[in-house]
Design goal:
The complex is a heterodimer of chains A (797) and B (355). Chain A has 797 residues and is an alpha+beta fold. Chain A has 20 helices and 32 strands. Chain A is 27% helix and 24% strand. The chains are: A alpha+beta (797), B alpha+beta (355).
Chain lengths: 797, 355
């Protein structure tokens, strides 16, 4: 791991206040105490020793077990549903069906299209139809198969192209579809055109274009969905759930169960991986609560792996046609993009996905003209959602492939062409008005080129051995909340009592990405205490102030800023106390290593506990609140909110690999992964996020695909769904680029999602360098690679 | 659809005789269990589970390993690390499943592995959705739905095409291994190649209650050039989707003996014995592959590149993989040719091959 300073680095108010910006133009890391130093994640010891408690580990007196009966048809009318036999079985305590509630929900207010359980018809193979709570899992399992269901098949929509067609209203999967396309199964259509696209293509020296296809992929998180619901003796509903976004689940529960929000407590359990697969409010959460309401007993539901795949929310299966225009110097002139994404049975985050698949192509290069036609369709397949790198990963493969094709056509080095087009720091994109404050992509790519010896290798390696590049950017937090209101997007509370423990409350969900540690580091840095003094409580809606949760790569930026603001309040209290004790002016104190030190006379200092107790005199525990709200951003057209973010991360990856020309097998040898995360608050954790992104991206690039037969997923298990093993994963050299974002907490931006996208095109472009063929289908499986090699050989002959 | 193990009675005999007695007592309603890495996942999917499971894990006489024979109860990892077995056999063992699974899985388990198919290795829920298949609970095959019956195309309610997915079986067959069984009527020894017979359900000729005791290797197996090439989507954990094992004996540059055994492309491993000495009896009617059809003459010929190409093409042409395990059949077929070609050339040039 290397840390590189971005030259476009901007000064950060906090750093200026701390006096740590040097005249040489680079910030000094030496003055930070906690931030910027590698810290093992706070929950990692519990996780590796097995102490961490997941929902499935929890037991309550009188607890019942739930199993869900799922649809065995992709699209069918329910002609009969009889639960009598199941209800009569000994040990069965309750059975629920769609009759329990006809209230629809969904993560986005505009797509409230999910029922807790199917009513009248089922719309995908795996949709919940009924559920049982029983004394044991075994009884519950037997009971669901005693439920009698009969179906009358309806026309199935299993290919995105079928969903575009006009159909009779009774064949629509959902009543509400895109207004522009009535009587279809199109969920959302986005049509945007900015600048002179036609003109750009006319004057261009190179106009590469291609059709692309992407299979759907799933997150493959380790912990299957598992929840416990309890309608307690005080008539309050308690839901234990490994949620990335407890707040939206909280809202959806209130709606579906018809309860005021304050009568519901959502408790986030340890999340065994999320990646966007645990960020929707879920049917199984509703079902467990309904059974708890009926039985008044705690009800546990743990899914098996197949059900977890069926619950879905993975990356959309995608079909795209794209073309780009470049002038003779390799300057990007325009992008023309047409994308269809298969949303499966529900809306989920899909309206956002439909926008992101287009608008997030407005970086990392300056794009003068842009046309996008995007459609998200409903189908009778597993619902897609906001998987890691939401909406940006597949189109990024397309554009990065086209950029590479242009470089070849124009006789330019692909890295050089990219360097000519990068967005500069402190710019606003011309049409969508995305505000780029900091970017270190140039330094990142240059460093990756140096370390990989790109210039010695590109175009010069022997047949079968190649090197390729891919670049990307990503939002660092969606600037607009999903539910429009005036509340901040993140709030953090701090409480310090006489014991000296610093307790932070936040609803930002630590899903393994390390947000608890991030908050602790920021607070410890600001108030000058040791990291082990700070404890973060981020699980419970009763005590944690609302945070919109772990999606859109927003937590470090937003919750981090909120934590900083809260800690500043405590710091003022402590400074005032130190001032009172020493007679020195409060603004002259530095906070270092549990000492509050007078800046001009370092001999004058007060210990952390001494200052704390002075500050607590007559008042008791110190409490403080901080919050974050994005600044006003963006243009004024329909859909202008999509893609807005207070900051953007940037990445540049280089991949070296070998292709076996006889078998089509691709063997990555080494990845140089440069990612601009603003400031690495915790370099250890940033390195882990980037390595994890590369591993996950390589899975999509080479082996992972959700395969179907008649609408039924063929490989919903970890043997047949091919996640790369350690043996398949190459050496990854992480290059952290610090561009010091002016608004990020201590200059930080996201690093959890953006680093996934560039690896896939880097692999594709390296395959081209190795064997001279372009892959337009992802994953780039051996049979596809071999077909391309053979087709090229045939064309030559 | 939950992955709960169905209820069964577990027996843990410590001698073969004890195990045979238990088998007799529960005839028709038991399975033998060794490492459990194949049987138990199938049980969890509700696939042909029985009321009694007789564990062979505590029978010491099954766990001996010598230069000449390997006990059926020997763990895969112990074959992988053994210096006395042929390198090709140890190497093949090192490609099975994953390091962790090799700590549990045994030789006997790998040879007795149940055949695999997309329509069989699925949960109860999955099979309810699609409709059961011949191999479990059903009356039809979803992979080859129609078959030719006396010139007429009829619904396939007879032949299961599930794929035999053992790595060790083709390697041991190529080396001419024999297997010894203990049964209610005493013990018998037969060629491993003869043992495998039948469609994806039958897959071998084990008599009721018989226990695989050991696999014996002829002296020849230690002397010839041999190796194994596995095709799988990933470098670890996966079952083979094609596996080519070769045993080659050269007389100078001329072929003295050549045995190519291919796994994971048919309902049993397929042996191409180019001396035509060993063939299935009666002609392997269940196999889709016909090794003898247009088999080139190679014995006594110089093993030059042209002959290597001819042999590989023959293997590639004859194997008939089905769309029932990962990777397309056409691709797997082609790869059988590539793997054979590479392995043959490497064995010819290097004497031994890394497995």
């Amino acid at each position: 791991m290397t840390i590189v300073q971005g030259s476009g680095a901007t000064r950060n108010d906090h750093q200026k206040n701390k006096g740590i910006w040097q005249d040489t133009g680079a910030p000094s890391a030496a003055l930070f105490n906690v931030v910027g130093k590698p810290a093992p994640l706070k929950d990692s010891f519990k996780k590796v020793t097995g102490e961490a408690v997941y929902a499935d580990d929890m037991k309550f007196p009188g607890m019942l077990f739930c199993r869900i009966l799922r649809a065995t048809k992709p699209h069918a009318r329910i002609t009969r549903l009889d639960t009598t036999r199941a209800e009569a079985m000994p040990g069965v305590r309750a059975v629920v069906t769609g009759r329990e509630s006809d209230r629809r929900f969904g993560v986005l207010p505009v797509s409230q299209d999910e029922l807790s359980m199917a009513i009248e018809k089922v719309i995908y193979n795996g949709e919940p139809v009924a559920a049982v709570a029983a004394d044991s899992e075994e009884i519950a399992e037997r009971a669901i198969w005693a439920i009698e269901v009969e179906y009358e098949p309806l026309q199935e929509f299993l290919k995105p192209q079928d969903s575009l067609k006009e159909v009779a209203p009774e064949l629509q999967i959902h009543d509400k579809v895109e207004k522009k396309h009535p009587n279809t199964n199109i969920h959302k259509a986005v049509d945007q055109e900015f600048g002179d696209v036609e003109g750009a293509f006319k004057q261009a020296a190179s106009t590469p274009g291609a059709s692309f296809r992407f299979d759907g992929i799933s997150h493959g998180f380790t912990e299957p969905h598992a929840v416990i619901a309890h309608w307690d003796a005080e008539d309050r509903l308690q839901l234990y759930t490994p949620q990335q976004v407890p707040h939206y689940t909280h809202r959806a529960l209130a709606k579906v169960l018809d309860l005021p929000m304050h009568q519901i407590q959502v408790i986030r359990t340890t999340v065994g991986g999320g990646f966007g697969g645990k960020s929707d409010p879920f049917q199984h959460e509703m079902i467990a609560c309904m059974l708890a309401r009926k039985t008044r007993r705690p009800v546990k539901l743990t899914m098996d792996r197949e059900e977890t795949f069926l619950t879905g929310r993975g990356r959309h299966p995608t079909e795209a046609r794209m073309a780009m225009a470049f002038d003779k110097d390799g300057k990007l002139l325009a992008l023309d993009s047409d994308v269809i994404i298969d949303g499966g049975a529900y809306g989920s985050f899909g309206v956002v996905s439909a926008y992101y698949n287009g608008v997030l192509s407005n970086g990392p290069y300056y794009l003068p003209a842009f046309r996008y036609h995007g459609k998200r369709v409903y189908s009778n397949r597993i619902p897609s959602g906001a998987m890691r790198g939401h909406g940006s990963v597949n189109p990024r493969f397309c554009t990065e492939t086209l950029v590479d094709m242009a470089a070849v056509e124009l006789g330019l080095d692909p890295c050089e062409l990219r360097l000519r087009n990068f967005l500069q720091p402190n710019t606003i994109t011309p049409h969508h008005r995305f505000r780029v404050t900091s970017t270190g992509i140039r330094e990142g790519l240059e460093e990756a080129m140096r370390r990989s010896e790109w210039k010695k290798k590109w175009g010069k390696l022997p047949y079968g051995h190649g090197i390729g590049v891919g670049c990307a950017w990503y939002i660092s937090g969606s600037a607009l909340p999903i539910h429009w209101n005036k509340l901040p997007q993140s709030t953090v509370h701090i409480k310090i009592d006489m014991d000296g423990g610093v307790t932070c409350h936040s609803l930002a969900a630590d899903i393994g990405q390390g947000s608890d540690t991030m908050i602790a580091q920021i607070v410890a840095e600001v108030i000058g205490c040791k990291l082990d003094r700070v404890h973060v409580k981020s699980t419970t809606t009763d005590t944690a102030p609302i945070d919109l949760g772990s999606y859109s790569s927003r937590v470090t930026f937003m919750a981090g800023n909120a934590a900083r603001e809260a800690a500043e309040v405590i710091r003022r209290d402590l400074a005032n106390a130190a001032s009172k004790l020493t007679g020195q002016p409060a603004q002259y104190f530095d906070f270092v290593d549990e000492q509050i030190v007078c800046r001009s006379k370092p001999g004058i200092r007060v210990g952390f506990m001494e200052a704390l107790h002075e500050a607590q005199a007559d008042r008791g525990a110190l409490i403080a609140s901080g919050s974050y709200q994005s600044p006003p951003l963006g243009g004024e057209f329909k859909g202008s909110n999509a893609g807005l973010s207070p900051s953007y991360s940037f990445s540049a990856f280089i991949c070296e690999l070998k292709v076996d020309p006889d078998t089509g097998f691709v063997q990555p040898l080494k990845i140089w992964a440069a990612h601009d995360c603003g400031k690495a608050l915790n370099p250890l954790s940033v390195e882990g996020q980037i390595e994890g992104s590369v591993h996950m991206g390589l899975g999509q690039a080479l082996t992972e695909q959700m395969r179907y037969r008649n609408g039924q997923m063929l490989n919903a298990n970890f043997l047949d769904y091919k996640i790369p093993t350690p043996f398949d994963t190459p050496d990854i050299e992480v290059i952290i680029v610090e561009s010091h974002d002016p608004e990020g907490p201590f200059g930080a931006k996201e690093c959890g999602e953006g680093a996934l996208a560039p690896i896939i095109p880097a692999v594709g472009n390296a395959i081209y360098d190795a064997v001279g063929v372009r892959l337009f289908e992802v994953p780039m499986t051996p049979d596809r690679v071999l077909r391309a090699i053979e087709a090229k050989a045939r064309a030559k002959a | 659809m939950t992955m709960l193990l169905p209820r069964f009675e577990l027996h843990q005999p410590t001698t073969v005789a004890e195990a045979l007695a238990l088998a007799k007592a529960h005839a028709g309603d038991f399975d033998y269990l060794s490492g459990g890495t194949d049987l138990l996942p199938n049980y969890k999917c509700g696939l042909n589970a029985r009321g009694h499971v007789i564990s062979l894990a505590h029978i010491a006489e099954l766990k001996q390993i010598t230069r000449d024979s390997i006990g059926a109860g020997v763990r895969i990892v112990d074959i992988e690390r053994n210096a006395d077995v042929p390198r090709s056999v140890a190497g093949t063992a090192g490609h099975i499943a994953s390091p962790l699974l090799r700590e549990s899985g045994t030789l006997g388990g790998n040879l007795m592995l149940d055949n695999r198919c997309h329509f069989f290795n699925q949960s109860y829920f999955w099979r309810v959705s699609l409709g059961y298949c011949l191999k479990a609970d059903g009356d039809r095959c979803h992979v080859v739905p129609m078959i030719n019956d006396g010139g007429k195309s009829v619904l396939n309610n007879k032949v299961c095409v599930a794929t035999h997915s053992s790595d060790l079986a083709p390697m041991l067959i190529a080396l001419g291994a024999e297997v010894t069984f203990a049964g209610p009527e005493g013990s018998r020894t037969l060629k491993l190649n003869d043992f495998y017979f039948g469609d994806g359900i039958a897959r071998h000729e084990r008599k009721p209650g018989e226990i695989l005791v050991k696999v014996s290797l002829p002296k020849w197996a230690h002397e010839v050039r041999s190796g194994y090439r596995k095709l799988a989507p990933r470098q670890s954990i996966d079952f083979p989707v094609a596996g080519v094992a070769v045993a080659l004996d050269l007389d100078g540059a001329r072929v003295k003996t050549l045995r190519v055994a291919v796994g994971a492309v048919d309902t049993t491993p397929v042996l191409f014995d180019f001396s035509r000495a060993e063939q299935k009896k009666p002609p392997a009617s269940y196999l889709f592959t016909d090794p003898l059809k247009n088999m080139p003459d190679v014995i006594g010929k110089q093993l030059d590149d042209a002959l290597v190409e001819q042999i590989s093409k023959h293997v590639q042409t004859q194997v008939q993989p089905k769309l029932n395990v990962p990777m397309e059949p056409g691709y797997r077929k082609k790869m059988c040719g590539v793997l054979t070609r590479r392995l043959l050339a490497e064995l010819r040039d290097g004497g031994t091959a890394k497995a």
